[in-house]
Amino acid sequence: MGSKERAKERREQRMQEISLLRTIPYSDHQRWWSSETIAVVTGANRGIGFEISRQLATHGLTVILTSRDSNVGLEAARVLQEGGLNVVFHQLDVLDHLSRKQFSDWLQQNYGGLDILVNNAGVNFNLGSDNSVEYARKVITTNYFGTKNMTEAMIPMMKPSTAGARIVNVSSRLGRLNGRRNRIEDVTLREELGNLDSLTEELIDRTVSNFLQQVEDSTWTSGGWPQTFTDYSVSKLAINAYTRLMAKVLSDRPDGHKIYINCYCRAG
């Protein structure tokens, strides 16, 4: 079995395991959501994003399924709608300011905001044992800056509630700071990124910018970066750090306006 076949098999296994979560029952006192709870899922036309949309809608939420490509997004929404699920499609390119603005205006006009944001949109051009950084800028821009763009755009639109709003950033174990393997070799940088008291958005941005500069200079192989899926790993490392930072920033919001943010990772 080749690397692409093994990767496909792992993806299918993840989808099967994720699907099992739909069978988990929730009692009335656990159920803080309803059909009026609005969940936005980015990059949801296939894969994990599609399955997350299915699960949320299966549990009775209204899901806004978004995709950069309108044709595939409409088809994905149609499949879920035919299953009796409350899913609505809207085109969204998380990297395009105008697209985000149009989506925000539409969301506000039609639903008055949102309760849940799932930042799933992302790319990875490496499979198996490949470790190319040919598309490093696209990977970093989409995975990290796209997540930041959407988070910043949606926070002002989060609906107040006693249960609090939710932001979930789909991440990866490849972005761990202190794993035994595939970590940043610079101990000082690891400590800075792991120290919540001194962690800043500027530090995270500077870290990914330094990586991209080394890619352009062809010096990244000696820069002490993760050795597996390097560009993807750096993008997820940045997402993890940004999520921790935003959790701290959002923790000061008053009751009734709470926003809880965390990362989700199945594997890889």
TrEMBL record:
Keywords: NADP, Oxidoreductase
Family of the protein in this entry: Belongs to the short-chain dehydrogenases/reductases (SDR) family.
Keyword Metal-binding: no
Gene name tied to this protein: SALR_1
Entry protein name: Salutaridine reductase
Molecular function (Gene Ontology), one example: oxidoreductase activity
Superkingdom per UniProt: Eukaryota
Signal peptide: none
InterPro entries hit by this protein: NAD(P)-bd_dom_sf (IPR036291), SDR_fam (IPR002347)
GO cellular component, one term: membrane
Segments traversing the membrane: none
